[in-house]
């Protein structure tokens, strides 16, 4: 059950996680709170949280969208929830649809879709299917730690590669280099590109923001390993947070360019739904000296609010601070020779694979 901890910042169960609280989702009618009865320290009796993985068997895995803010109209997420624990993750509220919290639940109660490759193969084999690039990493990271053993992402990429279906991957994990054997031949045929998210080069800050993601050094090394094999890499500065990591923009871009990245984007932080409470709690725990300043700057980006959900506005921000960030990014991108994100993948090579035998009952 989702709950508020008695001490939001020092609950030992949450050590090593991004969120410091586990509030009830906006769809829940009830919530609980641990209270101190004065007899004993409750923290001595509560076991540390472990990551659990539940097998999910969906009927489909291909998600479509019509947003003008993103360069794709379809995506696949092999997992729900994400152990990386990025405190700012806009996908956290999606756990509310599972009657779970967007806080620590999102990081510890994961869902895996082992039949994803077969389901997707059936979907792209349909007679009326029209090929467009599929995006991975749009909601949760396809290379989060459990992928190392479960290899669901790898199985999907193998299937897509076999039928020459273009796709993109966005990740904060160096584990993506494991699949260079799949990615490199496809990149040579303009069938894939990888986005690596780098939010800081400071390992201490990175561990606070994204406690179980790859270290900054490993992400930069992943850029080099991928580009050395001819796989195009887009640097993603996402999110840029005022007074937390915004001062690193130039150094991150220069480092990624040296490693081989050829394209770059940046996105200012946005705090939809429950993410705002989680982020503000995190700020008070780690940066109490500047918490009010950070939130004031974030609100200045969003017209006085903590999130602006409007299409064509939510990804770029507004106001003087947003304009300054945009100018810094544009000026350095031009100097370094970065191009804007444009994958330019080839859909003409796609050949429908045919529905797998194991999935035929789905269509009876």
Task: Kindly describe this structure.
- This protein has 364 residues and is an alpha/beta fold.
- The chain has one domain: Aldolase class I (TIM Barrel, Alpha-Beta Barrel).
- A seven-stranded mixed beta sheet has the order 4-5-8-9-10-11-12. Strands 3-7-6 form a three-stranded mixed beta sheet. The protein has a two-stranded parallel sheet with strand order 1-2.
- It starts with a strand and ends in a 28-residue tail after the last helix.
- The C terminus is likely disordered.
Percentage of residues in helical conformation: 25-40%
Tell me the number of structural domains. Answer: 1
Report the average pLDDT across residues. 89
Tell me the Rg in angstroms. 21 Å
Notable characteristics:
364 residues, alpha/beta, TIM Barrel, 11 helices, disordered C terminus
Question: What's the gist of this structure?
Answer:
The chain is α/β, with parallel strands linked by helices. The chain has a single domain, classed as Aldolase class I (TIM Barrel). It contains 11 helices and 12 strands.
Helix and strand arrangement:
Layout: E1 3-4, E2 32-33, E3 52-55, E4 62-64, E5 74-76, E6 79-80, H1 104-108, E7 109-112, H2 116-124, E8 134-136, H3 147-150, H4 152-162, E9 167-171, H5 180-188, E10 192-197, H6 203-209, H7 216-228, E11 233-240, H8 249-259, E12 263-268, H9 275-286, H10 291-301, H11 319-336
Parallel strand pairs: 1-2, 3-7, 5-8, 8-9, 9-10, 10-11, 11-12
Antiparallel strand pairs: 4-5, 6-7
Helix pairs in contact: 2-4, 7-8, 8-11
């Amino acid at each position: 059950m989702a709950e508020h901890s008695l001490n939001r910042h020092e609950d030992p169960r949450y050590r090593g996680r991004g969120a410091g609280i586990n509030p009830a989702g906006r769809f829940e009618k009830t919530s609980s709170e641990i209270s101190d009865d004065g007899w004993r320290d409750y923290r001595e009796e509560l076991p540390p949280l472990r990551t659990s993985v539940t097998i999910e068997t969906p009927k489909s895995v291909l998600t479509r969208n019509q947003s003008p803010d993103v360069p794709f109209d379809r995506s696949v997420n092999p997992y729900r929830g994400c152990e990386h624990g990025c405190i700012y993750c806009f996908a956290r509220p999606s756990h509310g649809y599972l009657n779970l919290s967007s806080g620590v639940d999102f990081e510890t109660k994961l869902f895996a879709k082992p039949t994803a490759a077969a389901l997707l193969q059936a979907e792209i084999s349909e007679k009326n299917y029209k090929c467009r690039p599929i995006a991975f990493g749009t909601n949760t990271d396809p290379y989060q730690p459990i992928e190392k053993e479960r290899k669901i992402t790898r199985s999907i990429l193998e299937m897509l590669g076999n039928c020459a279906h273009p796709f993109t991957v966005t990740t904060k994990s160096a584990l993506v280099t494991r699949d260079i054997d799949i990615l490199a031949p496809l990149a040579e045929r303009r069938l894939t590109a990888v986005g690596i998210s780098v939010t800081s080069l400071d390992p201490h800050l990175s561990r606070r923001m994204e406690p179980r993601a790859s270290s900054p050094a490993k992400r930069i090394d992943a850029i080099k390993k991928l580009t050395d094999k001819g796989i195009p890499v887009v640097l993603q500065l996402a999110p840029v947070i005022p007074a937390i990591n915004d001062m690193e923009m130039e150094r991150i871009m220069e480092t990624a360019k040296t490693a081989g990245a050829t394209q770059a984007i940046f996105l200012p932080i946005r705090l939809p739904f429950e993410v705002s409470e989680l982020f503000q709690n995190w700020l008070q725990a780690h940066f109490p000296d500047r918490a009010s300043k950070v939130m004031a700057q974030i609100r200045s980006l969003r017209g006085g609010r903590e999130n602006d959900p409007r299409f064509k506005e939510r990804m770029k921000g507004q106001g003087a601070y947003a304009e300054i960030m945009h100018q810094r990014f544009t000026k350095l991108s031009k100097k370094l020779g970065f191009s804007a994100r444009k994958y330019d993948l080839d859909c003409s090579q796609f050949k429908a694979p045919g529905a797998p035998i194991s999935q035929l009952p789905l269509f009876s």
